[in-house]
Each structure stands twice: as structure tokens, then as C-alpha cells.
User: Fold these one by one.
Assistant:
Number 1:
Amino acid sequence: KKLQLSYSDRAELPNLHPPASKLLKIMEEKQSNLCVSSDVTNSEELLQYSRINSNLQSVHVTTTFIQKVQALAEKHDFLIFEDRKFADIRNTVKHQYEGGLYQISSWSHIVNAHAVPGPGVLKGLSAAGKPLGRGCLLIAQMSSQDHWLLLFCVAQVQMAEEHSDFVMGFICGSKLTERPEFIHMTPGVQMQAGGDLLGQQYTTPEEVVYNKGSDVIIVGRGILAASDRAEAAELYRKSGWDAYRKRVGQ
Ligand code: 5FU
């Protein structure tokens, strides 16, 4: 089995995207490839929960608590990933990203987009996000049962490569390209493989990072529903990190 480059080696690659290199560095420093998905509807709860050791947060924004989250991100050195899943025409996504109620581009380091509308979605987002040093993940595969994206996965990789000045990686189930500049992030992760009752499918950190070659595990309820969230987060961090070390042969 071929040895893989470490996160810190990849952080030094030339022409790497600013948020990608920052993310790779933080992961190595914190020894954590865990992205906590903060799917809570109460902003106070989210602020409290942000103190646990994670690299980034996936925030479904409901109120104007952004400044507090930004301050926490700075203090605890994590990146903010708004899981907004943009999927409209070039002009509209630009407005959705930088304007409106949430002004996402002003505070979220990373966003994601569906490739369905074609490259225009990336051009629109890039126009607003690139000058601010933001990055985007293309949603290449989903963890939901019977999703359709596998049908055009190859086209998505090509689209990402053609827009690698703004696309920093993928939401996916497994590694899609050997190009080390791209970061692969995988949702649908729990300690035990299985699913929820609504079509979500789960695989383990070891399977995702070691066998499937993905870089980051995205965990929501595995941590949120635990009685001790900090303890659960540490469990996922360790499991994801051990799988990474095994992968790079450390
Ligand atoms: F793009 C995707 C996907 O394919 N599957 C997902 O589960 C995104 N997600 C998000 O990851 C989903 O919207 C939740 O915010 C999170 C998974 O949460 P869970 O509680 O770990 O199932």
C-alpha cells in the first residue's frame, strides 16, 4: 500500500488554497481531523459547545451570534464551515453568499456547493469568496441512502480541477483524486456503522480515513447526542487521528 503524504507535507504544497493550507496545519497541530457538525437550533448551546477541540464547525445559522462564533474561532483556532450547499445560477449564488440576511462570505472560511448547476455555481461563489481568501468544497457524494451524485462524480472531479483556485476539496465518501491539494471531507460518521431511521448512513472513522482515504470526518449526532459531548468528541478525534497515522505510516 502506497504511503500517503502527511497533512503537514500537504500544507506546504505550492499554490495551495489559503483555507486548505490553514486547515491542514491546524489538523497537524491539534492532531485532529474531526469536523464537528453543530446542528443545534439554540445559539447559546452552540457557543458553549464550540469550546470543544474541533477544527471546524458546520453551522446552520439562525441568529446574529456570528461575531461570538468568530471570536471563538480565533481564540480556539478552528475554521468555520457553513454547510450551505449552494445550488443555483451564477448570479443568484453570488448574492446568496455575500448578501442577504446572513452575509456568509464575511464570516465562513469554507462553504460547499452542488455541482448540478455546472461551473457557473463556482464562478459565482468565487467572485465573492476568492478576494476574501475563502474556499469551497464540491459535494461529490452524499451519505444519504440512494443519493444520485455517483452518476456524475467523474465530471465533478474535473470541474473541481478546473476551478482549483477556489475549490479546495470535496464532500465525499472516499478519496476521489490523487491530487494532494484537495481535501476530502466525509459526513455520515459514527463509532458504529449503521444509519438513522431517516436514510442517513454511517461508517466508522477508521473506515473513512484509513480504508476510504478521506481526510476529515464530519460528526454531528455521534457527539451531539452523547451525554458527555467533550468526551465523545475526544473519542472521535482519537479514532480519526489513529486512522490517519496508520494511513501515512506514522
Ligand atoms: F453533504 C452532506 C451529506 O452527504 N451528509 C450529511 O450528513 C452533509 N451532511 C450533513 O452532515 C448533515 O446535514 C448534518 O449536518 C451532518 C451529519 O450529521 P449526523 O448527525 O452526524 O448524521
Number 2:
Amino acid sequence: MRIAVLKERAAGETRVAATPETVKKFIGLGASFAVEEGAGETSAITDEDYRAAGADVLPMAQAVAGADIVLGVQAPDVMTLTGAKPGAMVAATFDPFRDKDRVDLYAKAGFEALAMEFMPRITRAQSMDVLSSQSNLSGYKAVLAAANQYGRAFPMMMTAAGTVSAAKCFVMGVGVAGLQAIATAKRLGAQVSATDVRSATREQIMSLGAKPVFVESVEGIEGEGSGGYATEMSEEYQKAQAELVSSHIAKQDIVITTALIPGRAAPRLISDAQIATMRKGSVIFDLAVAQGGNVEGSVADEVVERHGVFIMGYSNTPAHLAPDASALFSRNLFNFLSAFWDKETGTVTLDEEIGDAVRLTKGGAVVNERLKG
Ligand code: NAD
């Protein structure tokens, strides 16, 4: 079994889909491994590191030649896969709802596209889940970036020259990124509050020592919601939420928004009018900026100033922590493929539950239920 990893070509992508650690582990399973020259550079991994782990480090076309499996952070252009085995597996993120053309091209080329963001939220797949591993780092980075932009301190400081009061930080959306954002802001000494539409997050917020802020008048999503995810909320809920946010946000210094709904644009949580009520110098970090944004006026990779408030967000937050993000992403890929690896035959056979969830294309067709209709 030949596995190939190419240099990521998407703008701003600094991660890589294999590290020397996972190269060694795949070789331990009996695979041979090819890495494109310079693939690890932006994640602080040299070609020499890959060679020492047992990989062949080659120019792109030679690296991909004869590959049975290609690994990527973002799915490579089909053009770059010329020379891979017919029907080769390509495991990467595909952004399948927004990039349907790419999915079609993979189908036409006959590859088996495996979308890592479609990994089911089940216990045994936790170690394979790139959304979780990358969101966790994103939540951390969002707070650090906001703290850096904020002209005041996070912790309360009692000094001979007087007291500096603690920053007030509000986290909106308490999934994996939100939980890490709460924990990070707490570690930095902020007073933290948080909200979500899922009732199950109330306890999680409190267990991190933060204050839950919830819409009480209209019912949200009881428990975890389908597959753990949120759905679009009713108009009545959205109105009640806007009122709650308006009264709370005026007293906040830092707001981190993380709300996403799979397959849809991110819900709008903060309006320009609400931003106008915040103290000058406050910072809003919109982690959903690349999915349409939770915050009115947010622009990816820019710091926008509105009413004296800074609004920011990155198009690719984990790429700002490339060595750690690559290490976790690569382990997710290894955990995924090794779970279905037959050492004797040297083949990978996915089971129904996980295979049907992640497989986008096979045998020349788009086969994923979530992409049909
Ligand atoms: P996500 O990135 O899809 O969304 C972030 C958060 O935003 C979610 O908590 C969501 O409820 C919230 N949200 C959506 N609309 C909102 C709105 N209008 N206002 C406020 N908040 C809103 O979430 P995620 O990090 O992928 O986590 C989703 C769930 O999946 C969680 O319950 C998490 O614990 C669970 N999970 C399970 C596994 C597993 O079992 N393998 C792995 C990861 C996550």
C-alpha cells in the first residue's frame, strides 16, 4: 500500500496531513510513504525529518505516482492526482456542501473521496474527528488573538498604582471551540459567560467556572440535538436571543462567536446596532467568519473597526497554529485508516457506519446521502 502526502496548495494553508510520527506508524502497518518536497515546511517539519521517519521525499508528480491513498488537509485539485492508482482513496476535508464542483470532479476522475468533516459524532470515531481536533485549537487561538488586539489586561491586577479590573468575556456557541475558548479566557483571568441553543451546554459552561446566559422564554434544543449539532432556530427564538444578547453584550469587553450549523450559513448573532453599545476598544472574534459570519461586518483576515470596537476573524484559524494542528490532524487520519487496515492483505476496508458517512464518491459517482437532493 503506497500512501502519498502533497504540499497543501490552498492559499493560507500551513498545515500538512502527515507528520514523521504518523509516517512511522503507517510504515509500521506495512505501507510505503511518499511526501512531496517541502510539504512540512510551514508546520516546522523538514524533508530530512520525513526521510528519517522512512518516507521517500519527492517532487509532486513522483510523490503521487502509484499512490493507493492520498492524504490531505484540504482536498488537492484533481489535476495534481494524475498518476495515482485508479480508484485511489483520498482522505481530506472537502467542504462538500460548498464545493460541489470539486466533488463532481473527484467522481469523474474515479477516486474514492473521503470527507473527514463528515466523520460521524460517535464515541469510537472521536479520535478520527478532525473537526474536533481543529476546533479545539481554534477556540484557544481566538481568545489569544482577541487578547492581543485588546488594549487592556485580561486578569484583575491589584497594584500599588491601583486596581485593573478583569476583562469580561462572552462566548457564543459552546461546542468544541467554545469550550476551549471558555477555558482559555478563564486561564487568562477573564470573567467569562457563555450561551448556546443546546440546553446540554449549560452544565458544561458551569463546570468550567463560567456563567451560563440562556434564553429562558422560548425553548431551545433539548439535550445534544441531532448528532450533537444545532439546527436553525425558530424566528421566535432568534428574537428572544437578540434581546438577551443586546442586554448582555453592552457590558462585555471580549466576545468570541463560534456558532455553526452544518450545511448552512452561520447564524447571525450580533448586529451592528448591538456592536454600537459596546465599550470602545472591545474586541469581537468571529470564528464563523469563513462560513458567512456570526457578526455583522466581520471580514476574514481583517481587523474591522466599527463604533470603536474591533471585529476580527481568520479564514483558517487552525492554520495559525500549524505544528500542533498538523500533529492532531495527522493523528486523526492515522486513527481513521488504521482502524480499517488489514495487515495481511494490505488493504483498507471501511465499515458501513463510518464508510457511508464519509465517502463522497466511488466508482465514478457521487454516493453520499447528504449530498443527494
Ligand atoms: P459546531 O461547530 O457545529 O457549532 C458550535 C456551537 O454553536 C454548537 O454548540 C451549536 O449548538 C452552537 N450554535 C449553533 N447555532 C447557535 C445559535 N443560534 N446561538 C448560539 N449557539 C449556536 O459544534 P461542534 O463543536 O462541532 O459540537 C457540536 C456537538 O457535537 C457538541 O455537542 C459536541 O459535544 C459534539 N461532539 C461529539 C463528538 C463525538 O462524539 N465524536 C465529537 C465532537 C463534538
Number 3:
Amino acid sequence: MKIAMIGTGYVGLVSGVCFSDFGHEVVCVDKDPAKIALLTRGEVPIYEPGLDQMMARNVAAGRLSFTGDLPAALAGAQAVFIAVGTPTRRGDGHADLTYVMAAAEDIARTAQGPVVIVTKSTVPVGTNRQVARVVAAANPGLDFDVASNPEFLREGAAIDDFMRPDRVIVGVESARAAQVMEEIYRPLYLRDFPIVTTDLESAEMIKYAANAFLATKITFINEIAALCEKVGADVKQVSRGMGLDGRIGKTFLHAGPGYGGSCFPKDTRALSRIGQDHGVPMRITEAVIDINEEIKRRMIGKLRDLCGGSFNGARVAVLGVTFKPNTDDMREAPSLTIVPALVGGGAQVTVTDPQGRREGEALLPGVRWEADAYAAAAGADLLVILTEWNEFRALDLSRLAGMMAVPRLADLRNIYSAEAARDAGFVAYDSIGRAGFE
Ligand code: NAD
């Protein structure tokens, strides 16, 4: 089967590469010529573990190619996936569908048909029908179906998530679209991963409901963590005790500095707008959005307290700026709130991140970049762990304490313990939802 993939971002590129690994012929298209130039040279524009090898293998096998030429990509394709961005629309919180609709019109003008137009981007309920209307209006003679196939991969573990998904959601309303989608995902059927076939609206809704639920789970434990600090409980013990209950589950119960990333913030905002538009306010999701902002502000307060009440003149070293480990993605990362507050408050800030510098340099003005945690910490008055990269999980705390001007540690990912920090020579330690010392 020949597949065209529109958009070579985190989702489009991973999906295209993995579909080619299934054995399909995949042509990936992007409107950004710089990305296509990189990809054609065999370079990967994003950091995603394992993607470069899988991409190279499938290019070499002749199943995977990249182009800016949409008509060539669509020629003979039985399915075309739309995997373009759906960021928050400026001003109102809705998902911005400009890129999706532009892609739909491009397809309508170029496709020969019969073709299934599959929306992989996260889109509000009703969008697939809107895509169908836009395509039919732009090219009334085109023989096409639509399908909704929201993506659930996590950056940093994207290949494994795509190749071994918890489930694949396919929203269709015609037997022909169902059959094409089944053929595309046949390798997963054979390996017994559940493929859930629904109507278009349910497929669209599943994606928002799932993301809002996960954002709620994180925010719930973050709020419990704030209470733990006041009552003398330890949130790590609390979340373990909760998570062992099979009805609750262990994942997404790690307290931290608030969720960020390319999906949870924008998808919770979009869901709350969809609810408002339909007169069914998503009150839990709305509360989650507000509480998450509060949590990020609370982190700034913690750091200010550790600096003795003011950032002015403090030398602060920040470990990790990407929104989570194993990605270079900086979209809505907590660092984008916390680091500017440090710089704005008069701190001298050094930062380090294994992959974040390329994106982060422009987004975090006024900081000095260092190669690793030790270089960043030298001479600092406060060390902040913001992203739990493996590189920061087994630091030599004694060495760090020894090279800092005032050894104080803000462990915003609960990697270490007050005891370990004290033993290493730190004079102050704070984390999330656990006792610290000063
Ligand atoms: P991204 O911004 O990384 O990539 C989008 C790509 O689409 C860009 O390269 C852009 O140049 C290209 N593009 C836009 N319009 C185009 C057009 N008309 N023709 C060709 N190319 C075009 O976005 P992403 O992170 O991959 O997200 C894509 C969608 O998938 C979003 O709806 C997102 O919510 C959803 N999603 C993302 C993730 C994730 O972890 N990033 C996970 C699940 C779902």
C-alpha cells in the first residue's frame, strides 16, 4: 500500500517511518523546505531515540522517501494522513485548524482518488466532517473517504509507542475506509494489539478525553503534594501507596513542577472550549488548567525562598529545560515560566540540557549555556533540577556541593532525598511534596 504523510513533525515523521517499517511505501511531505532538505540528506530534524536508524533502514530499503512535491506524493496513494500542527488559536483557546484545513484543500486539489484522507492531528469533534466538506467543495469529483486516527505516542518513547500501542483508535463511517485502515494497521492486528473502531466523533473525543484525564491525574498528585508539604506526608510514599491500587495505576502519579509539552496544555484548553461551545462546561479540566498554572508559580516561590527571599544577584544553575527527558521539544515546558522568572528577578542563570539547547537558546534569553551539570553548577548559590534526564539521575552530589558557592538544591523531580543532599554537604534542600531542610 502506498501512503502519503503530510507533516514531518514529531507525529508525522515517526508515523511515516513506522508505517514504512510495517512494509508500506511511504512518502512524507512537508511545506518546510529546510526540513525536507535535511530529511533527504538522511538527517533527522528532531531528537527522538531510535528514529534515525529506523529511518535510514527504510530509506535504504526503498520504502520511505521525502518530498515537498505533494502531487508526486499523492500519485497512487490509497491513504493520505494529515499530521500537521493544531496549536492553540491565539486569543481564545480553541484548536487552530488553519494547517489542517490548508492540508485538506491541498489534498483536494491534487489527489486523483480513490483515497482515504486520515486525520492524525488532534482535532476537535466535528473536524473530520469539516475536512470532508472542504475537500468535496474544493474538488466535487474526487472519490474519497475520511477517517479519524488520533495518535497517542509519547515523545521520547515514540517508536516503541507506535510499534506497541496500548490501542489504535480508528474512526470511520464507510466500509471502504475501514478496510484501508485495517490494511494499514494489519501488522499490529497480527501482533494482537487492540484496534478500536468507532464513529468519527467518538474517535475525535477519545483523544481529548484521554489527554485531559492524564493531565488531571498529574495535577491531582501535584495538588496532593502541596498538601503533603503542609501536613508532613511524603508524596512519593503516598503515590506508591495509591498507585498499587489497580483501579488507580502507578503511571502519571509522579509529583513535579506542573505539566507542559506540545499536547496537554493545548488539548486541555481546546477541550474546555469545546465544552463551553456546547453548553457543557468541562469544569474539572478548567480547574486542572488553572491549578497547573498555580503549580508552576508555586515552584518560583520555592526557588525564591531557597534564595533567601529574592533572586537578585543569586547565581542559579538549572538542569534540564525540555518539557520532559528524551526530547528536544520545548513547547510549553515549565522552564519557559521558571527560567524567565529567575532572569527577570535579577538572578545570573546557567542552564544545561542534553538536547534542549538548539530550541532553547532563542526561547530563554539572558542565560549562559553549559555543557553539563558540573559546569553549570560551578560557583552557583542554587541548583535546580527541572527535567529528569538520565544524565541528572546519578549526579555526584558531593562533587556538586563542593563546587557551588552556596550548596542548595531544588529537586523539582524528587530524584534525590533530603538525607542524601545533607550527607553530600548541601546546606538546603527542597523537593515536591516532601520535607526538605534549610
Ligand atoms: P509539529 O509542529 O512538530 O509538526 C507539524 C509539521 O507539519 C511541521 O513540520 C509543518 O511544517 C508541517 N505542515 C504544516 N502544514 C503543512 C502543510 N499544509 N503541508 C505540509 N506540511 C505541513 O507537530 P507535532 O508535534 O507532530 O503534532 C502534530 C499533531 O499531532 C498535532 O495535532 C498534535 O496535537 C498531535 N499529537 C502530537 C503528539 C506529540 O507528542 N507531539 C502526540 C500525539 C498527537
Number 4:
Amino acid sequence: MWEYAPAPESRDIANLKPNYRMFVDGQFVEGTGEPLKTVNPATEEVLAEVSTASKEDVDKAVKAARRAYDRTWSKMPGSERAKYIYRIARLIQERSRELAVLESLDNGKPIKESRDVDVPTAAAHFFYHAGWADKLSYAGYGPDPKPLGVAGQVIPWNFPLLMAAWKIAPALACGNTVVLKPAETTPLSALVLAEIIQQADLPPGVVNIIPGAGDIGATLVEHPDVNKVAFTGSTEVGKIIQRQLAGTSKKLTLELGGKAANVVFDDAPLDQAVEGIVNGIFFNQGHVCCAGSRLLVQESVADELLEKLRVRVSTLRVGDPLDKNTDVGAINSREQLTKIQELVESGEGEGASRWTSACPLPDKGFFFAPTVFSNVSQAMRIAREEIFGPVLSVLTFRTPDEAVAKANNTPYGLSAGVWTEKGSRILWMAQRMRAGVVWSNTFNRFDPTAPFGGYQESGFGREGGRTGLEAYLDV
Ligand code: NAP
Ligand code: MG
């Protein structure tokens, strides 16, 4: 094994400030909610104090968004809106190092991921949607599709900047204005995005960003003057929101949890599959709604594949998120770490075989070593529930029909993977697996041109691509 010298990125690049304020009506203002302290999960140190919105502030933000909608944004030609959105995309690129370091500090994800995935994909979402702003009449929703009005958006902590981009870019392209609530543990990159929005000179009120806890999310989604609600987070909260919105005219999209099957057939190139499995479950510490958390392996190659997998996973380096050599960073919060530990204990208790990488873990911070469970049966909690951590459950199958049956034996339906040399089998599987996204011979690929979203308890509605525009248009 290689010995790696530490290669830390400088945290000065993040331009961390001691205090952050919410962004309403084009200004950074002190919220009247209880301020929150955001923590670096890799060290448990407080990074900054962030002012939060009260219920009255939510109302102010929605009013600002409404004014901006009525007076400027909904009236502006698409070609003009596009210029602003392009500007945001370019400013994200210009400030990409700062955003990447800040994201890794606040969230705990490895710098190589924030630098190479989160930030460039966030910019790509703005570029892509800027392109749509003056072409909506060609999107297939009629000659002159209209925006909906004010969008209330609530996002989780696992991809803080990227989720903000997924939400804001299509809303703006379609002519809506936005009030967005970032997650409590990761508010910083959304507030730097607010700086970028200010720098891009967007008319005041077009985008408002209000940190706060879950109750502020609830106040936002039930505000009577919000026309569209977009939520990414847990299935539990998604259900609450769906109940809240029942009987109203608000349009709703929900992007919720998942328990994706990653299916490996005996003809698959196994070394390549191992890379895809590792990427599928250990990317972003497994804090990924579409993570390939259930590996289904054809029985005849299961032992060989598991052995290769353990060898490969043993080489993953867990530790300082700012180190460019780190593969797996910090678990986002103590709460999430406890949830992972509890589910892993349940797996041991129910009789699955646990293997955990012997990698050293830092003394401070929230970390969990990559773990693979074999001898997993479908009824076990680790096969059914979302762990949202670096923990893989391995099951086996004998025939393609059995693979499909097991893959679909889940209340979720967000994503799936299939590994095989046969093109016809890929299509056969993709037609039968009930998942919004099916990757073949790859995993966790994200592109703004491709619609993303779920079936069943993974939610409904699509984000990205032409299909994703529908959520922000009156069609
Ligand atoms: P969560 O509790 O549902 O939180 C998501 C967001 O909703 C946060 O901003 C949260 O605020 C807010 N919130 C909490 N209660 C609310 C309420 N009653 N009304 C409105 N907003 C409310 O999810 P989490 O446990 O933090 O995040 C992990 C979960 O998100 C996982 O289950 C994962 O599968 C799911 N997820 C899904 C996707 C997807 O694309 N489908 C993507 C990422 C994550 P606080 O931060 O203050 O709690
Ligand atoms: Mg934090």
C-alpha cells in the first residue's frame, strides 16, 4: 500500500466569516429567529454563527418574492432572464475553489468531491437552465408556457450547494421567484450563493435565502402566497408536506429517500463493477438519496466479487475532508452518525455478516469506517431502510427474474444500477426495474440534461432536463 503524505487544501480559501445573515429582498439582513451555530463535522468546531428566519421573516421573504415576481421577473423576456442565470453560473465557476472548501468545511465531504462534482455540477445546472429561459416555447408545453409564481423550496444537508442549484436554476429559467430554506447543519454555501446572486445583480426579491430549522421549512411550504413547493429530504417530512398541501392549488414536487439496487450479473467486468459499487455507496459518505446501497450479485460470482470489493474498500482513505487524498470524509452530524450506528447494530443483531475496513479514523469529529454486510436477507432492516451512510448490504440472486423481483422489493424507487456485458439485458432490466433513474455499467452520474426523480416513497416530479421544467410551469 502507498503511504500518503497529507495534502490539505488551505481553509483560508473558504473566506469564512464569523457571522452570516439571511438574504431577503436583495439584502443581507439579520433574521429574528434564534441564531444557529454551524459546525465542522470533521473537527466539531463551530465554523460560524448564522442568523435564522422567524415566521415573520418567512412572510417578509415571500412578500419580497411576490413583489419581484409581479413587478419584474415574470414580465422580463426569457432572453433577459437568461443573462442573469448565465452570470450566476460564471460566478460559481469564478468562486469555485472558495465554494468547494466552504462546502467541505460545513458538510464534511471530501474536497475532491466538492471540487470535482458538487461545484461544477451546480454551475452546469445554471448554464443548462439559462439556455432554456428563452426557449420555453419549444419545451413541449405549449406556445407560451407561464410561470407559477413564488416557489418555496426546502433542501437537505447532503449536497447543500448542488441542491440549491437544482432548485433555483429551473425556477428562475421558467420565470418564477424563489424563497429557499437550506438545511440547519449546512447553511453556508447557500448564503455564498446569495452573495453571487447579489453580485450577478438579480433584481431584489427574485431569490431569497432563509436559514432556519424544520419549523421554518413548514412555515414556508404552508404560506398561502407560495404557488409551488419543491422539497428534497426524508420521506417522513415529504409525507407531512403532502398532507399539508392537500386541497390547496400549490404544485408540489418531492425528492425523497431511496434504497437503490445495484445489480451485478456474472458476465459483468468485475473490476469495473467494483469501482461502480464503491462509487455507488461510498461517494459522499453514502449520504446520497440515490446511493447503490443494496448490492445484488449473481450467486456464481458473489464470492469472487465480494473478495475484490473488500480488497478495494480497504484502500479507501477516511479522514480530513480538506485532504485531497481523502476518499471518505466526515458524517454530517452526530445525529446522523448515531442513526448509522443504530442500523449497523440492527444488521449484526439480525444475523448479517459484517465486514468493516480496518482504516484508521480521526480522534475527533464524526466518522464511520466503510462497512459491507453480506448474508443479508430481504427482510432485514439494513436491506429495507435507508442507512444514509457508508454501509453496503449485499444480497445474491440466481436468475434475471429473481434480480428484478428483489430489486423492486422496496417501498422506494429512486435509482438502480445494472452491470452486464449484454446490451439487451441492460434494456430488459431497465424496463422492469421501478426506479426513476437506471444507470448501466456506471453509477451516480449526474447531468442537468437528465431528469432525476423517483417512484413510490422516493417521491414524484422530475428535476433536470426538459421534463424538469414542467414542475415550474403552468402546463
Ligand atoms: P429532512 O429532515 O427531511 O430535512 C430536509 C429539509 O427539510 C431540511 O432543510 C429540514 O430542516 C427541513 N424540514 C424538516 N422538517 C420539516 C417540515 N416539517 N416541513 C418542512 N421542512 C422541514 O431530511 P434529513 O434527515 O435532514 O436528510 C436526509 C434525508 O433526505 C434522507 O432520508 C435522504 O434520503 C433524503 N434526501 C433525498 C434526496 C433526493 O433527491 N430524493 C436528496 C437528499 C436527501 P432542518 O435542516 O432544520 O432539519
Ligand atoms: Mg455544518
